[in-house]
TrEMBL record:
<dbReference type="InterPro" id="IPR029058">
    <property type="entry name" value="AB_hydrolase_fold"/>
</dbReference>
<dbReference type="Pfam" id="PF00561">
    <property type="entry name" value="Abhydrolase_1"/>
</dbReference>
<feature type="domain" description="AB hydrolase-1">
    <location>
        <begin position="49"/>
        <end position="284"/>
    </location>
</feature>
<dbReference type="InterPro" id="IPR000073">
    <property type="entry name" value="AB_hydrolase_1"/>
</dbReference>
<dbReference type="InterPro" id="IPR002410">
    <property type="entry name" value="Peptidase_S33"/>
</dbReference>
<dbReference type="GO" id="GO:0008233">
    <property type="term" value="F:peptidase activity"/>
</dbReference>
<comment type="similarity">
    <text>Belongs to the peptidase S33 family.</text>
</comment>
<dbReference type="GO" id="GO:0006508">
    <property type="term" value="P:proteolysis"/>
</dbReference>
<keyword id="KW-0732">Signal</keyword>
<feature type="signal peptide">
    <location>
        <begin position="1"/>
        <end position="22"/>
    </location>
</feature>
<protein>
    <submittedName>
        <fullName>Alpha/beta hydrolase</fullName>
    </submittedName>
</protein>
<keyword id="KW-0378">Hydrolase</keyword>
<dbReference type="GO" id="GO:0016020">
    <property type="term" value="C:membrane"/>
</dbReference>
<dbReference type="InterPro" id="IPR050266">
    <property type="entry name" value="AB_hydrolase_sf"/>
</dbReference>
Length: 303
């Protein structure tokens, strides 16, 4: 009996790596305008599209730094947006908001999901909100992870906090009448010069260093360089949130100065649950188990 049990345990142990591999896959998906998008699927449960931030980053920073805890409860679909990460760029330089939303919808149809959840992080909140606004019938719920829905408002937070960290007047960094986006570059340079950049996203510099180690500057950065030429990304998306009557979970960080620790208070979702955590910009990295707990409880209440 004992020998039989040991044999079963051995067989099960040898199969576990294969089972884990079967739950993960990656491939390239071709959009209707012939852009190759890198897609990775991992985990089990309700399908959930992760919409990464940046703008111009890639989703590896999420699943490699603790975000993969949600794969225990959800089937996560990670896609490198066009012009980002491992995906190709647009030959026609089409990085419009409408095209990004269309990419997500084409991928949903290709994968055969009737509905899915959306989990945007940071700048990804803009695209998730537009997608849910246009395709509410295809969305089961939204999980906003420290997301901005008004980029100019978030940039103001960044510049103001940057001035505090640098111990200089805001007026020294942001001249009257100057667009806040123009002031941002100077703030970032000064913070980098003094080794204080991490304070905009984290309380712990080691976590900032870990995040930077995941990033690879040799990856595609076309979207990140061209997005600022599209005015639609600068709109105040909070105005649309009142019309999105889907279940929503919103994460915010008390020390998240890259988005703004009180930015979430401008959201107007009719069916929202808010979780303000003792973190900076990346709660999945700083408090992964607590992050998973809140996500799991939210998902359990969905139909």
């Amino acid at each position: 009996m004992k020998k039989t049990l040991l044999m079963l345990l051995f067989i099960l142990g040898s199969l576990l790596p294969q089972l884990a591999q079967a739950q993960q896959k990656h491939f390239y998906f071709t959009t209707s305008d012939n852009v190759q998008l890198y897609v990775r699927i991992a985990g089990e449960g309700k399908p959930c599209l992760f919409i990464h931030g940046g703008p111009g980053s890639w989703p590896k920073y999420f699943y490699a730094l603790g975000g993969d805890v949600v794969e225990q409860d959800l089937q996560m679909i990670y896609v490198d947006q066009r012009g980002c990460g491992r995906s190709g760029g647009s030959e026609k330089d089409d990085y419009s908001l409408a095209r990004m939303v269309q990419d997500f919808e084409e991928l949903r149809q290709y994968l055969g999901y009737d509905k899915w959840l959306l989990m945007p992080h940071s700048f990804g909140g803009t695209m998730a909100t537009e997608y849910a606004y246009q395709h509410p019938q295809q969305v089961q719920g939204l999980i906003y992870v420290n997301s901005t829905l008004n980029i100019n408002n978030s940039l103001e937070s960044y510049v103001n906090e940057g001035a505090r960290v640098l111990q200089v007047p805001v007026s020294e960094l942001h001249k009257p009448g100057e667009p806040v986006g123009q002031a941002l570059g100077g703030v970032v340079n000064k913070l980098n010069e003094q080794g204080l950049m991490y304070k905009m996203m984290y309380r712990d510099k080691a976590m900032f260093d870990a995040m930077n180690a995941v990033m690879d500057t040799t990856l595609n950065w076309q979207f990140g360089s061209k997005v600022w030429g599209y005015q639609e990304y600068a709109q105040d998306f909070t105005a649309k949130t009142a019309s999105i009557k889907l279940p929503v979970l919103v994460f915010a960080g008390k020390y998240d100065y890259s988005v703004g620790p009180e930015h979430y208070k401008s959201f107007k979702f009719p069916k929202a649950t808010y979780r303000v955590m003792e973190t900076g910009h990346c709660p999945y990295q700083e408090q992964p188990e607590q992050f998973r707990k809140y996500v799991k409880a939210f998902v359990a209440k969905l139909d």
